Amino acid sequence: MIAVYSLHQILHNPPREFISNQVEAYGESPERAELILEALMDIPGVELKKPEVFDGAHFQKIHESGYLHYLETAFDEWIADGLWSEGIMPEFFAIGHLRAGAPPANPLGKAGYYMTDSCTMIVKGTWIAVQYSAFTALTGARYLLGGEPAVFSLCRPPGHHAGYNFTGGYCFINNSVLAAKYLQDNGSLTIGGTRKVGILDIDFHHGNGTQDIVQRLENILLVSIHGDPRHNYPYISGYTAENTAKNINYPLAAGTSDDTYFEIFREAVSQIKNYGAEYLVLSLGVDTFEKDVLGDFRLSTGIYGKLAEYLISDLDIPILIIMEGGYNIEYLSTNVISFLTPFIKI
C-alpha cells in the first residue's frame, strides 16, 4: 500500500489554542503525524512516498480565491502590523450579515472574517504546511488514477472543517474535497469531469467544511457519521435536517458502541454504493475511540479494522484514505494502523 507524507507539514506548529473555555497546548500537534509515520515505517507492505507539487489552481476549484490569498499572506500582514508574534488568534468573529461584505483591511478584522474559532491558529509555517498537506491528498488521488486500489494520504493539518471561505477545527484547505474534485476531473485543471465521487467522513466531528463545499459542487456525495452536534463541535451543522441529495448526516449519541456504529457504517456504505460512486475518499478520524479526549463514543481499536474489511468487501472501487482527527497520542497510531491493515493486505 502506498502512504504519502511530507515533512513540510511539521512547519505548522502553533503553541496554544483556546478550547473548552481555557488556554491549552495546541491539540493538533506535529507529533500526531510523526507517530503515525513511525508506525508505518515498521510495517512490511507499506511504501512511503513524498507528495508531488501541484498547481495552486486546483485549490481554487473548491475554495474562494480571496480566502486562499488570506491564508498565504495572513501571518506576514499580522506581524507587519505589530501583532502577537506567536501567531494569529481572532478576538472577534464576523457572523451572519457581518460576513456579507468584503473582508476588512485590518489584520485583526481579516482574522475574524475568515477564521471561525479560537482553536485554529495561523503561525509562520502554516501556509507551507497547509499546501503540502493538500499536495499529499492530491498525490494520493493521482496514484488512484494510476491504478492503485487504495492509498493513504497522511495529511496534516487536517481539512474537513475548512469551508469554501473559512478556517476552523484545525483545518485550512479541505483535503478530502480537493482530492474528490481531482478524481472527478481526472487530474485536469481545465476540464470539468462528471464522474461520481463519494466522500465518507468517519471523524468524530461533523465535517462542516466538507458539507459547505460539496453543496456548491455536482456529482459528489458526502456521507458523514459523527457525534451529536447538539453537544459537540461544530455545533451548528451535522443535523439530519440538513440532509440533501448531496449530503447525508448520521449524528450519533454519546456512548455509541462498536455494534451500533458498525450498523450505521454499513448503512452509510450502502448510500455510497447506491449513489454509484466510481471513487471513494474516506476522511479518517480516530477521535471516535473510547479514550479520545475530544470525543464521546466508545469504539474499540478492533472496530477500525472491521470497518476497513467491510469497505473492501462491499465496495469494488478505489479508495483514498485522508487523515483527519484523533487526539489520544498514546493510542493514535495503533488505531490508524488497525484501520489500514486490511488495505495493506490487498
Helix segment tally: 9
Give the percentage of residues in beta strands.
5-15%
The structure class reads alpha/beta
Mean pLDDT: 97
What is the string of helix and strand elements? Answer: EEEHEHHHEHEHEEHEHEH
Low-confidence stretches: none
Rg from Cα: 19 Å
Q: How would you write the strand order of the largest sheet?
A: 4-1-5-10-9-6-7-8
Helix content: 25-40%
Calculate the terminal CA-CA distance, rounded to whole Å: 8 Å
Largest sheet: 8 strands, parallel
- Number of strand elements: 10
The general outline is: globular
Structure, explained:
This protein is α/β, with parallel strands linked by helices. 34% of the residues lie in helices and 14% in strands. It contains nine helices and ten strands. It has helices spanning 30-41, 65-80, 107-114, 126-145, 175-184, 208-214, 258-275, 301-314, 332-344, and strands spanning 2-4, 16-19, 22-25, 47-49, 150-153, 197-201, 220-227, 247-252, 279-284, 319-323. β9, α8 (301-314) and β10 (319-323) form a beta-alpha-beta unit. α2 (65-80) packs antiparallel against α3 (107-114), α4 packs parallel to α5 (175-184) and α7 runs parallel beside α8. It is globular. It starts with a strand and ends with a helix. The model has no long low-confidence stretch (mean pLDDT 97).
Salient structural properties:
single chain; 346 residues; alpha/beta; eight-stranded parallel sheet; two-stranded antiparallel ribbon; 34% helix; 14% strand; globular
